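Please review this one:
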Amino acid sequence: MPGNAPPLTDEAELLLAYIAQQRDGLRNTAFGLTDDQARLTPTAGSLSIGGLVKHVAATERHWIDLALQRQRPAPREDQEQGYFDGFRLREDETLAGALAAYEEVAAETEAAMAGVDMGTPVPVPKGVPWFPADVDAWSVRWVLLHLVEETARHAGHADIIREAIDGATMYPLMAAVEGWPATEWLKPWEPAKT
């Protein structure tokens, strides 16, 4: 997808296009990385590109389930450990696997939102400290806008992490992913010569 979402007029399609654009930004930060590089945490925090891909996929799935009032079985592993594992690419996981899972989530979101009224109320879960206690419901529209914001925030984190790994930045990575020709002012990213 080019650097901008298309100028669609259907609200649902436009919101989904913005989510797709931000997904692409996050996926582009993983382009050309090895599994070991995707596990690196080169900044002051504990975030890695592989972990961010996993986290954003799980977050998107959670919000779409919430919007549709869909329940999934609880994970078997310890809740706290499962939460922290959601932010890292474990040794038994691959970047390709995390990206494939993210693609599945994206397809689920597109299918789930087809034909959904953007004004449909989405009950706000109670007893969650970061959710407002004085709001009874959001709308599906609000949920999709929130996913744009959530995905964009983490794509920005991934931009910083990727630059710390090998100096790669957004436009050269996007040019490499999309096969843009080199110009005087923009060269597609290439792996460092060893």
